Each structure stands twice: as C-alpha cells, then as structure tokens.
C-alpha cells in the first residue's frame, strides 16, 4: 500500500498521468518528496528523510509502535498477606502450596516454589491488556547455584511468564507465549512453548532486571501480531519476536476490549526468586476504547414523523459547532425509511434524509427531548418507499455526511452536506446512485431541492456502476480550495471493495485532470487484511491541520465475512499540508483492526439472539474540545416478539492530538 | 499402464545419487543413501517443488503410486519428456482447488480432496428429494407435496404457503417471509448439493412490487426472516435472480423467463457455482463450516394474487458426500480404562497410533518412555488388559526411552515402529513384531533407521503397508538443527529402507526456526491418494495440516485441517494426529490442546474411498 504521494511525485518528476502511477506497494511512502512524514514507524526506514528513523521521529510518538506513555495495569510487590485474591496458585490440581517471600535489600521477592516436584506458578487472575502495546517488568535473583552451571538449564529456576492459560497441569510448566526464566546457575532463558529463543548469563545473588516490551504490528499477511523486545540486566537479548497473533490473545474478562495475556511468576524448587512485578499498557490514543455517553437516539427521539422512519433510521451524519450564544450546536442528519432495509434483496426500498439539531452547554451531553427536527424529510419523499406501486417515481437519497466549516471561534461558517442520490429514469431501473453536495444546509426545517444532475455521476467513473457513502475532506483549514470527496465505489451487485476520492472545488464542481475527474483510490479491501476480506464502505474522515502538518483519520466499515460489519480505522499524516490540494496521503490501516467488531459489548448489549448489526458510524470533533471526538454508532437489533429497531449510540474518544 | 510408467521412470535418465532402481515384487530394497540431500530450499511455505521433474525419474514411481492400478502418468503420455510433463501437470493442477477440480486434472486422485469432485452420490435416504415439481401438486399443502415424493416439508410464515399451477407461492409479507423447510438437515461442510430450480416469474410486477421467491441453505431455523447463507432469490421488481451469500446479495443476473433453468452447486470447500441454462455465471465463496446443520428452504414474499405471484415451479436436487479435510465431526476426548476405571495419566499420553485389524482396533501410545497398546471397545473408548507396557527401553540407544509408536497391520502380523532415544536425545527408528496377548512386542535386531552425518536424529515414524510395499515417513533432524519430513520405502521392513529422493516433501516440511515445528506425520492411502497429516506448532499453538499426493513426490499442501475448537479439550489446538482410512470416512486420533494440558481425542469425517475418476 506504499503509494502515498506517489502520483504527485510522478507528476512533479515527469508529468506522468494517473495511468502511469507507480504500482501499489512498490513506492516509498513519500515518493522521495522531502518534508513528508514518517509514515511507517517500524520499518527501519527514514521515510521522510529528516534523519530521524521510525520512533526517533516525533511523527511516530503517538503510534503503538513507539508510544512510551505508560498506564500501570498491574503492580505486585508480593507483600500482601493473602496473594490468593489476585493470583491463582497453579497447578490447582495436586494439592495446595505456598511460596516463600524473602527480602533482598529491602525488596520482597517470591520464590521457593515448593515442593519442587513440579513447576509452580502464581498466575494473575486478571488478564492484562497488551494488544495495543505494553510492558512487563520484574527482577529475578538466584541465591544458590549449587549443582547448576552458569550456562546450563537447571531443575531449580524462577521467572516471569506471559500466557493465555489460567492453570497448569501437575508436573508441567505453564504454557508460555513468552517466558523469561532465571536458572539457579545464572542462565537466563527466553522461551516460547518451552523452546529457547534467546539466552543470557547473569551473576549469583544479584538482582537481574527483566523488561518485556510488547508492540502490535502487522505481519507479512497484514495480520495483527504482538511482538516483543526483551531486556535482561540492561542488555537487549531479543528483538521483534512474534509472541502471538492478536486474535490468539485472551479476549474475555478484563481483556474484552483490548486483548491481552495473563502474567505469572513461575518457578521450581528453592533458591531462585521473582521480584516485584509490574505491567503497564500504552497510554497513547486507543482507538478501540470508547467512552459511552448518555442519550441513545432513535427516530422517535428526534421527532421525525413515522411516515418516513417507522421501519428504519441509520447512516448518521454528525457535525459540531458553536452557535451565536456560544452553546454547542449539534447537527444530525440521518437516512430513514418506512420499510425495512432487509427487503432490499426482494424489492426496491426508498430512503429519505431528515435533519435534527440541538444545543448543549459547553462540555455537556445532548438530551433526548430537546431536538429541533425537520419532522418530515429534508431531502426526499414522504413516504420514501411504497410496495404497492403508488410511488414508483420516488428516488432514494441516502448516506448523508456533514462537514462543519468553522471560524476561529469554532462558530459555524458553513455546513456542507453530501449524500448519495438515486439516478434512474424508469421504475425498473434501480440502484444507480450519484453524489450530491449541498451548501448551505440551512435549519432543520429547511428543505433541500435536488438539481437535475448530481455533483458527481457514476458515468464519470468508469470503474464504478454506482457511487455511495460520500464524505468530504477540506483541503485547507478554511476549505477555500475545496475538498476531497470520498465515496464507496460500487463495482457490481456484490459488496463494495474500494473507497475512492474525487477532488471538488470550493464552488462544488468536480476538478478534472486528464479528461476525467481528478480521482484517487484511497482504500482497497484486499490490501487491508482479513478484517476487510468481504468488503469495505462508509468512510468517515476527520482531518486536523496542525502547525507541523496534518493528520487524516478515516473510520470506515469493513466486513470479514458477508454481513459481519465492523468499524475500522486508517490514518495518514504529512508535514506538507499544501500537498492536499493535489494528493491524498495514503491512509495506513491501524495495526489492530477492527477497532469495534459486531461481537463487542457495545454492539451486542441488549441484543436478542445476538442479532445486532452495525449499520453506520459518524465521527466529528467536539467544537468545545477538538481533541475529543464524538461518534454516533448506528446499530440495528431484533426486538422480542419480532421486528427490528435502530439505535444511534453516542460515544467519545480523546486524542492528545486531535 | 505400467509400461508407460516404466518409460517415465527409466526414460528420462536423470542421475540419482541414491540409486532409485525400481523394486520388483518381493525384491529387497537397495541400500538407501541416507546422506542424500533432499530438494532443499526454505520449507514451511506450503509450496510444492517449483520446477523440474519433481523426482519422477529418480524413483520407482510405478510402485510408489498410492494406487498402482491407477497411474496418472498414463493419461499424460509416456514420451521422453513425460516426467517433466507429469510434474508440470501436477503443479498446474495443484495451483488452486478450482483448477484441481477441473476435469483435466482428474488424472490426479489427490485432486479429489477438498475440490468438490469425486463425490459419492447419496442414493439411500437422501436428505432432499431428488425432484419436487410443485406445479404437479396444485392444491396440496407443501408437506403433502413433499410426502408424495417420499420427503418432508414444514411450512413457515404468517400465512401458509400455497401451491398453485405456477408452483410454490411462499406467501411472505413485508414483515415476514414465508415458505417451507424441505427435507432433512444437511452437512454442507462435507456434502455437495446440486440444486436445479425453475422459477415462475410474477405477472404485472412493477418497480416496487414485493414478489419474490428463492431457495437457500440456512444455518438457522426460519423466523420472521430467512437467513439465506447461500442461495438464489428471484426479485420480481428487479427482474433479477440474486446470488445470496451470508444473507446479502453477492451478485445479480437477469431473471430470464419461466423456462430459465438455474443451478446452484454448493461444495464443501465453500464454493457456490451458479449456472443459468447450463452456462456458468460465477463462483462465490461461502462459509461451509457454519452450515454443518443446514436447512434447505424455499422462501419469498408475495403481496399479489396467487395467480400472478412469483413462485418456485420445480426443484431437482442431487446430494453427495465429498472429501473436505476440514470437516471433522465428533471431536471428543477418548478414554483409556483398566477394569472399568480410567488409567491415571494415560488419557494425556503422547504419540497415539490406531490400527484396524478387521476384528479389532488397537491404539498404541507412549507414557513415560514406555509404549502401551490398548484395544477399542467402543468408539472413543479404549481399555488395557493390564498395566504392563507393550514395549520398553532395553537397549543402550534407548536410554531416554521409547515413544512415537506406530502400529501397522499387514494382514498377517502386527508391527510396531517406534522412536528410540539415546542419552543425548537423538532418535532412531526401531521395529518390533507382535508376539503375544496381552500385547507384547519383540524388537527386531536391526534398527529401521539410524542417525547419520546428515540426519542426526530420526523420530515420529508413520508407516503404511500396501501390496507388499512398505512406506515410511519420519521426521529428520539435520545437523544444522533444521527438521524435515522424509519418505522411505521397502519391500521388506526387516531389511534396508530406500529413501524417496528429489521429491517435494522435504521442501514442504522443512523448519529452521525455533518458533515453529513440524512433526508427528501420519500417512494413509485413501481414495487412491496419499494423505499425509502432520502437526505444526506456531508459537505455542498446535494444528494439524494435510498434504496430499499421488506418488509421494509432488505434494499438494492443503494447510490446516484440524485446529483449535474454541472450547473443550482441544480448544486451542491439536497435534499428534494418526489417521485411519475407512471405507466411507477417515477416523483420526490426536492430542487436543487446551492451554493447560494435552489430551487424547478422536474425530472422524466423511470421505468417500472409491470415487477417484477412472482413467481407463
């Protein structure tokens, strides 16, 4: 996917056309253009040629591959009278046992894993979240090397283990995804599956600091994996070692949101000890962690008339701004229908768009009952759908996106609405959509009339039979030079697999190059990984212009198998904001996608028969705190006794850089 | 046929440092050169040998074919270049399941595995009626119509479906689908189903009418809605028939007319082929593993009069068993008892091996460096006559014990091959013969395979006996620490074993990284092809993989076929497979991994054994 800026580079160097753009995956991320970005933070390359490689480049400081901010998740000094509250004494079969807790230089260690007829371990009852990166630190100490050589494994040992297991079998070691073990003679072995992967030698009767640093990354098949660097007595003994695929980590209990492992102190016999044990997770932005907000919305809360939303409300668009009295104004536009979308394979279903608005106090949350609503569709017909042939001339409007253009005071300067509109001339011809962009949008009650032709028609994009899910990205902070219009390219009757972008002027006209729209391919499902194997759609971009460049994040829906939609994230950054007029920096998928799956608690909560689906997501920075992003997750769920309903769930996330 | 193979074997004239002369029936094998280096290259990537003759001219291929009466080389011709042609043809066929399933690849019996070909029609008590012409049942209920052809059907929906001269009108509404579940449950992970369907198009359907009719397989009982996991749906308003995968439209085609014949072929490997009037429209992937308890439904919605509604006029169905190596059922822990009580520690034994002697099945396993042999009294239930091992360490080269037992029945005697480990842990392969009951085995004086300068250790033997030929697969540990699987053959297991040279097995299975491991091979002959199961460790997790071959030289890697079940004794993984070929299925014993310990278990899968296409 290393295609970022490549077309611009070719234009600058040789005036080549898009057709001659370098092949994906073959071009350096910045195409050789100076002043770019350290796009890949763990590839060993100085992508932007600023003489700072990977994590040495401040571009990467917030990335999972480099984040150094720690939040302690487990801290054990072994001084509590009863350790059984937090630790399982394994093996649990074969009789109870306890461990000695000697003090060395004022620090309590645990050891004396007796009787020595079996390896024994204290396994954390809590799972420690590590999938987004983390650390495990401890000290080991051997006090008696009798009978054990300095370079030989010994039957007396102690160490720290990371494991998916919560118990061990008598006579056997704990299953070790990764273990660092000090043997009585001074040999330190790093093992996986009890197979040595690294070793070191240390002295007797001295504290040996052990550090395990864990980072998520993608393997050669774009599968998210957890890699480890291991340090023993200040020396790095193992680098970039694959601990496990993220999918094989523990994903339940304390690790239901962010997968992880159990941590254990394991040993056998006397004379070797484990010191205080501490684990931490990265405290940089965590795209998988959402703060749930109050006031889940529905069509009824928004006071839309049932005639056009009684069967379905979804695909939200959300914008945040300050109004004239400095309250926070939220604009919400949704698509709705009086018939179930599940009827789509059977017949044509019509959709319309409605607009609702609410004002809240600074930092506040919206209420359920104070929305000013368009009531009837702002765009489209009421009812939008008929099954008896009485409204065959209706045409659907779907999948709105709102871009709030704000002034320096975060007050609304313009609200730009984009949506998909059905472009057919006869009732039998359906499912062909183009993109409409409208500015201004007006108050909720202000209707929007459609011009005869769309802003962008599929006739202009040969690869796409239909254009869906539009979203706008301003190319400069004021959007004076226009936008990039993202959209889902529908190539056939099946699921979409590509998200494209077309350049739009401030006057909302398509900018052309080489005889056609100036167009780029933004995301391709086959290049993203298994989580997107069955298709992608519905991009939701958030761009932030900063002093040292810009940051573009695109949330989108991805499905690993048909119908299993999840939320995923890709991100791009560049120092060169001017480039945006010509090129979109290539978004790189987050290492741990999807960030929100259909099996997550958020989506499953209250589900009947576990039949809940993600139908859309909206993202916007809060006008009163741009570092805080507000999401609106649309889900559809079965009702007891039959039927389905829709919910719009407000969520928030804080990003240290917006 | 044999003459053609002789040309293949002899005519190509490539040098072989290990001899490779063909063995005549009853002849002893030539002295194997254990120092011969295999094909080399990086292993574990699942790629067959990349070029050349693939060892075909270097080995007695006419003897090595899994079914000597079925020589794929005959189809390919016997000129001087046939060896390379043969190898190239195999590589081309092994490139993908789609290609392997094509008729031109039928020369290779190994293409029967996981391609939806070589299936065995279910003739007795098929799960679905072979033909159901609803038009002939006008006025009847759907269950009456199904009963008239010896099948069954259960209607669902707010309104009962009706049958008219147009066919089955499902009678669903805007809020709930209607239709009928037809026939019995199917296992689409092991069964192929060919469905021919003819729709009756609605009359006067406008752009938004609700006339639809479809057929689909679904994993869940129909409620208000049918989850069409894989199927076809006629939409009257769209004038199209859509391919439904995962309850979503995967593709759509013009509906044609009432006489248009639609065919949906769902195969266990998870492919659905769609034909219209005999012309292929496309192939689509679906999750066959989720359809082990699949229902076949006719469904749809109708708001118009029954005289103008969309309907299903006719369905014709042919179902058959296929060989899908991932479709294991009955994954259960096994028990080993003595006098009715579980024997402590034996259920978590290592290296199980099961053999069918016709009148009884025995299973050998290793506990604490000793080998025990139990007998099956019921599927998954084994018993010991006493606590005495069947084989113990007695020799100096067995200082660390004996293990990895492999039982082989040649029709007259029961053989036990095993790994003997010396004080350094290096292994060699020994053989013993059944001597008395309760099972006690007497060791041969000579080792079957001993370490060499090239291979410092051999372990984990798997042996097949067929028509006077003995075949052995072992893991070899090379002097540099890498491991690989190697194949040997002989006509007399008490003498020397000849190595299969220049084939692709070594390259396929070589491991040079401490983070992974390949071991515990299990070779069987089934449906005229070799099936080689082996265990792969990746990190801490074990899985069983499969490679198939017609002649032990060119291998078609199938990837993981048995892994973690998410719950139970094998929730995290599986290793130590030992497969047993049966007439209509393959049984397997293995060791399940749950993160705490390993425990022996059993499973089986449907696998027809006499369906490889005849090449005569």
- C-alpha end-to-end distance of chain A: 25 Å
Helix content of chain A: under 10%
- Total strands of chain A: the figure is 38
- By oligomeric state, this entry counts as heterodimer
Provide the residue-averaged pLDDT of chain B: 87
CATH level-four homologous superfamily name of the domain at 121-321 in chain B = Exo-inulinase, domain 1
Q: Specify the biggest β-sheet of chain A.
A: 15 strands, antiparallel
CATH topology of the domain at 121-321 in chain B: Jelly Rolls
Number of separate strands of chain B:
38
In round numbers, the mean pLDDT of chain A is: 87
What attributes does this structure have?
heterodimer, A: 658 residues, mainly beta, Jelly Rolls, disordered N terminus, B: 616 residues, 7-stranded antiparallel β-sheet, 8% helix
Task: Explain the overall architecture.
The complex is a heterodimer of chains A (658) and B (616). Chain A is mostly beta strands and 658 residues long. Among the domains of chain A are: 1-62, no CATH class; 70-282, Jelly Rolls; 297-447, no CATH class. Chain A has 3 helices and 38 strands. In chain A, the strands form 8 sheets. Chain A has a 15-stranded antiparallel β-sheet that branches. Chain A has a 4-stranded antiparallel β-sheet with strand order 18-38-37-36, with no helix packed on it. In chain A, a hairpin with a 2-residue loop joins β11 and β12. The model of chain A is unreliable at 1-34 (pLDDT under 50). Chain B has 616 residues and is mainly beta. Chain B has a domain at 121-321: Exo-inulinase, domain 1 (Jelly Rolls). Chain B has 7 helices and 38 strands. In chain B, strands 1, 2, 7, 12, 13, 14 and 16 form a 7-stranded antiparallel β-sheet that branches. In chain B, a hairpin with a 2-residue loop joins β32 and β33 (529-538). The radius of gyration of chain B is 28 Å and the shape is elongated. The interface between A and B is large, with 53 and 46 residues.
